[in-house]
Give the backbone structure.
Amino acid sequence: MLITKVKELKEIEKFFNGKTYIFKCFGCKEVYFPEEEITGLINEKKDKILGVARVDYLCRKDFSKLYIEKNISYIEKADFIFVFSCGVGVQTVSKLIENKIVIPGCDTYYLNGFQGLNVLECDCQQCGECYLNYTGGICPITSCSKGLLNGACGGSKNGKCEVNSEMDCGWILIYEKLKKIGKLDVIKKYIKPRNYELYEKF
Amino acid sequence: MNYNILDYTKYRLKPKEELEELFKESGEIFIIWCKKCYKKFEEEVPECKELNDVLNNYQKKIIACLGIDFLCNSYLTKKKINELIESKIDIFGIISCGLGIQTVAKLIGNKKAIALSDTIPQSGNATSISGYHGIALEEEKCGACGQCYLEITGGICPIVECSKSLINGPCGGSKNGKCEVNPDKDCAWVKIYERLKKQKRVFSKEIKIRNYNKFTYGEKSKISFVSIENRKEGFYGGVHPLQRKEITENIPVEKFPSPEYLIVFLSQHTGLPAKPIVRIGERVKVGQKIGEIQGFISSSIHSPVSGKVISIEEKMHPSLLKMSLAIIIENDFLEEIDPSIKPFSDCENMKKEELIEIIKEKGIVGLGGAMFPTHVKLSPPKPVDTLIVNGCECEPYLNGDNRLMIEFSEEIFQGIKVVRKILDVKNVIIGIEENKPLSIENMKKVVDSSIIVKELKTKYPEGAEKILIKALLGRVVPDRGLPFDVGVVVLNVATIFSIYQAIFKGTPLFERIVTVSGENCIRPGNYLIKIGTPLKNIVDYCFTQNLELDNFKLYMGGPMMGIEQKNLDTSVIKGTTGYTLIRKSPVSFSRENECIKCGRCVDVCPMELYPLYYVFYGKREMWDECVNYNVKNCIECGCCEYICSSKIKILDFIKEAKKYANNKS
C-alpha cells in the first residue's frame, strides 16, 4: 500500500517560476491523500498555474492518456508539469509526455499490505519462501526490524524492539503464539539462509 | 479498451518436497485458498488444475477446499470461516500470498495454520523492499522511498529501475545499455540519460544521499491505525467523497417563484400510481386532492397551486425515466386555499388510527428519496421498539435536511412526538452526521431527555436505512428484510416535518425543500419548491442560461445516488432532494472496461457484497449467478462505481440483475 505526502515547499517552490500544469491523482481514494494541502498550495500559486486536472487513478495509462489528450493545449504551453500522486502516477505521466519536465509534488511512503484492498494490519515482503509455517503465522521478515529468521537478536527489552522502541519484538510475538498453539518445539528448527536471488528471477 | 494486464500479487505452491513434509503431519487438513487479486477476471478456475494435481496425492488427508475472494480482507474472511473456526477442525492449510496466510492465522487463534504457498516476488530489485505498487497493472513500479527523485531523472525511477538503486549516476558497469547485474535488463541510467536529452536537460551534479529513516515506524503505524479505524467506523465499507456542502450550507430556505404551469405526476411514491379525480377544465385550489389512493401501497396527490387543470397527459418521469401520467395545472396565482387545509382541533388527544388516517389522506411519503408511503411504514406488521430519525444526509452537495433541522427544529420535535405516539416506542434516536454541527446543536437544544441525538462520523452511505440501523444499533437487517424485521422504523427528518405540517397545520404534502447546487450554478440555494414545478424553470432560474448538457450531468438528487436528467421536460416530485450539476469526466464510464480484480468494490460495499461478480456475470448475462451473489441486497449506493479503478458502470449491471431477480420471483 502506497501513500503520499506533499514535498516541502522549499523543495518545489522554484518550479513555480515558470508556467505549470497540475495533475492531481484522486485515485486511491479511501487510503490517505493530502487533498487539503494540495488545494492550499494550488490556491497560493494560482497565477502561475495553467490548469489543474483531477484524475482518477492516474496510473491507469488508458485513462490518463485521455485526460492528457483533452488538455493538450494547456500542457503544451506549460514549462513544468506537476504531478501530485505516488511514484507510479508520476512515471506514467512522464512516459506519456516525454518532452516535458515532470515534477513529483509528493513523496511516496509505504504502508502495510499490497495495493488494492485497504491498509492492512499485517504485511508481506514477497520474499518468495514463506516462513509462516515455522513462526505460527507471524511473519519474521516484516515483524522483526532486522528480518531475522532464526530467533531473536537478543537486543529486545520488555518485549520491544531495540531498533525502534515503539515496535513490538517480532520474535517475542512469535514465541507467544507458538506457545499458545502448543508448537513451541518448531522454534528449534534451523531455517536456511534467505535466498535473495528469488527476487531477481521474477 | 484492451489492457495489457500483468499478473500481479500472486502466490505459487511450495516445492513438492516441502509440501510432502508439511502433509506428513498428523490430522486432517482443511484447505482455504485465495482466489487471487490483480489479474484479469476470467472464467473462474476453481481449485486450479495444478493445485489439484499436487493435492491429489494427499486426498485422504484433505477434508475440503474452500476458495475465498480477497482472503486478506479480514472482516469478510472472518464471516466466511467463522463456522470452521468453531468446528472441530484444527489444522488449516492456506494457499495464498503472505497477507492472506497471516490474516487467517490470526483469525483462527489457537488452531494451526500451514502455509502451502510462497508469495511470488514482484519487485525485481533486491535493494527495494516493495517496488510493485500502484493500482493499475502496468510496468511502472514505485519503491516508496519517501524522497521522490523523479524530477531530476526525467521520470524514470532510479530506485526500482537500477539494480543497485544508485541515485547519483550509473555505476559504470553497464554494457551496450544493459545492466551488469542482470544482462536482460536495460541500464536505468542510460534510459534516464536518453530521457533527459529529449527534454534538453542534463543530470544535475548535486550529490544526493538517500535517507532511509525518513518515514519512521511511529508515523507509519499511526497512519495505518488511523486509516484502518476510519474504515471500520460505524459500519463496514463506505466511502468519503468530497462533500461540497459549503456551497449551500449557510443559505436559508427561501421560496421558489411559483411557476405558470405545473406537471404533477400521479406516480410519486412506491406502489400503484394515484387515480386522478379531477377533470380537464376543472378549477382546483391550493391543497385540493387531485389524485386518490389506489391499493394498499399508494398515496394521494394534492394540487400545489390554485388554477385550472388543462391536461392529463404523459410526461417524462424523472425517476422512473419513462413516460408517465401527469396532471398539468395552469397557475392563476390567486393562491386560493382549499377549505380542507385547516388545523385539526384537538390533535394532542387524537388516537393512533386517526393520526395515521391524516398522514394517509395528506399524501405523506418518505422524502429521503425512496418515496415509500409513510402511512404503510407507520403500521408495521411486527412489534417495533425503536424509531430512528434520519438526519444524516450523507449525499454530497445536498443540504435540505440540514437547513430543515437548523430552521425548523421545534417543528421536527413536535413531529417526532406524533410518530412516537403512533408507534408507541420508547427509544427515539436522531442520527446526524458530524459535518452538520449547527443541526446537531439545534436539535439537542429542542428535544427532551427521552430522545437521543447521536453524532455519527461522516461516511457515505450512512443515511441508507439498513446502514444507519447497523451504525446506530448494531442490528443487521436480514437478507431481503425490512427495518421492522429488527424492530426499527426509520423516518427522514423531512418526512417528520411534513407529518408535523399535516397534523398541526392540516397542510398536505405539496411542496418540499430542494437543494440546487453544483458547478455553473449562479443561484445555489435551498428552495421551498412546489411539487410539479417544471425542471426547466429551475434550470433557467439557478443555472447559467442555455445550459449545455453535453459537458455536464444534471442529477436529480446528489452525484452519488442521483438520477441523471437528460430531458428537461419533467418536474419536481415528492422524492426530489436536490438538483446537482456536475461536469462530465473526460474519461467515459463504460460497460466494456475490463475488471482487474483490485477488490476495491469489495472493500467499500457497505452491504458486504462482491460487486465485481455482478460485472463478470452480467457481461455474460448469467443473471442467476448474480442472484446467488445476493444482488437483491444491494442498496444501489454507488460506492463500488465511485471507487472502481476500471471505471466500469457496475450499477448498470446491478440494476439489470435486480430486474431479472424481481421478474423471476
In short: The first helix of chain B runs from residue 16 to 24. Chain B has four domains: 11-119, 254-341+510-583, 352-505, 600-664. Residues 600-664 of chain B form one domain.
